Amino acid sequence: MAGLGIGLIGTGYMGKCHALAWNSVASVFGDVERPRLVALAEVDAGLAAQKAAELGFASSTGNWRELIANPDVDVVSVTTPNAFHADMAIAALEAGKHVWCEKPMAPALAEAERMQAAASRTAKVAAMGYNYIQNPMVRQIRTLIAEGAIGTVNHVRVEMDEDFMADPGAVFYWKSEASSGYGALDDFAVHPLSLLFVLFGHVQSVVTDMVKPYPERLTSEGEPRAVENHDLASVLLRLEGGISAVLMANRSAWGRKGRIALQIFGSKGSILFDQERMNEFEIYQNTGDRALQGFRKVLAAPDHRPYGRFVPAPGHGLGFNDLKIIECRELIAAISGEPSHLIRFDDGLRIERSVHAMARSFAEQRWVSVDG
Ligand SMILES: NC(=O)c1ccc[n+]([C@@H]2O[C@H](COP(=O)([O-])OP(=O)(O)OC[C@H]3O[C@@H](n4cnc5c(N)ncnc54)[C@H](O)[C@@H]3O)[C@@H](O)[C@H]2O)c1
Fold it and tell me: Which residues contact 191 (CB under 8 A, 6 or more apart)?
């Protein structure tokens, strides 16, 4: 296949991450045509021109609709704040482009449904940026579970903690506004939900508690302002097959920087993983001499595909941006009609439905089925 023409909208945290992936995917994998970095869009023409030069794009614009109208663009990376995803992704799909959209789909469920409806009207690929599922360690854990290495899984705990909202003195900003969503749930609990999905299937029912550790914050003008969403969520879940699960998300957890800690308990053993130590996992198996049983640590190595595409030596480790490069390779596979490991809009919508079910459960103080 000739190198895909790439359009990138947004150049912040994730925009740079997508740009690095598009720049690197051919060199890392060596089995795809080098993508052509055709166009980049930002909020204004000046910033767009600066970022196009930095990130290696041939042209730039301060108007994202111009990028979508560009006939040389085959794939659009949408890396703007959540509120823009629906309009940008739908316009790109309707213009006949493939779409790679950052999570979550949209703050409102109706917008996410519109995105999925647009995806279902085209044969183009519409994929979400759920990079943590691409970790070779997570893939290995998935294989182990499927092969029965820890028997029948009966319980899963996942905790996602960061501390960017931990300081009670931090200034009120848009992430505390209700218009940005429910807070910890849709801001980042969607990541552990993506992991639960690829490991165990979709969430069936939930009961949720949410907390505002700091109900009021000071604005940049020093005025007190009520916090409109919840920095902390605790959820009991039932997964496919009746597996019980616990999900905790806390964006005010001092000292936690990028924790997504999974504990998976089965009839023959257990598996532990934490994204803060993304190049290892631990497995306990109830076999052999009991006196010697204990958790065994497995370090990332070329045996855990596609680790070996990045580095030939075991134990040297991948990083966050590498997960995006792997995701990019999976996207190219999907576009080429090959098997791929991605969360597309249909499964992405189901993840969003489970988030909204969690919020409904809290509002109604009861268990809620994701299917309504
Ligand atoms: N997959 C992950 O691990 C991960 C991590 C962080 C953020 N995200 C998601 O990525 C998205 C972006 O978050 P971020 O942290 O990169 O934000 P950011 O603020 O760092 O970057 C957003 C960029 O979009 C640009 N932008 C805004 N409106 C625009 C418009 N109309 N046209 C063109 N550009 C526009 C901004 O100027 C900015 O450069 C969010 O949806 C977020 O949830 C995903």
Answer: 103, 130, 132, 160, 260
Which residue's alpha carbon is nearest to atom 21 within ligand 1?
Answer: 12
Ligand 1 lined by 103 (C-beta under 6 Å)? yes
Q: Which residues contact 242 (CB under 8 A, 6 or more apart)?
A: none
| Domain layout of the chain by residue ranges | 5-129, 133-364
pLDDT per residue as tens digits for the range 246-287:
999 999 999 999 999 999 999 999 999 999 999 999 999 999
Ligand 1, atom 14: nearest CA belongs to which residue?
13
Architecture of domain 133-364: 2-Layer Sandwich (3.30)
Instruction: Compute the distance between CA of residue 348 and CA of residue 206 in angstroms, rounded to an integer.
Output: 18
State the distance from the centre of ligand 1 to the C-alpha of 190, rounded, in angstroms. Answer: 16
Backbone angles phi, psi at 261, to 5 degrees: -100, 120
CATH of domain 5-129: 3.40.50.720
Alpha helices in 30-125 (DSSP H): 45-55, 64-69, 82-94, 109-120
Any ligand 1 atom below 6 A from CB of 174: no
Query: In angstroms, how far is the first alpha carbon of the chain from the final one?
Result: 43
- No. of helices (H) and no. of strands (E), the chain: 11, 17
41 Cβ below 6 A of ligand 1: yes
Total-model pTM: 0.96
Q: How many CB atoms lie within 10 A of CB 204?
A: 17
How many whole angstroms from 202 Cα to the centroid of ligand 1?
A: 27
Q: Tell me the pLDDT tens digit for each residue of 28-73.
A: 999 999 999 999 999 999 999 999 999 999 999 999 999 999 999 9
CA of 220 to the centre of ligand 1 (A): 22
Whose CA is closest to 183, among 217, 156, 157? 217
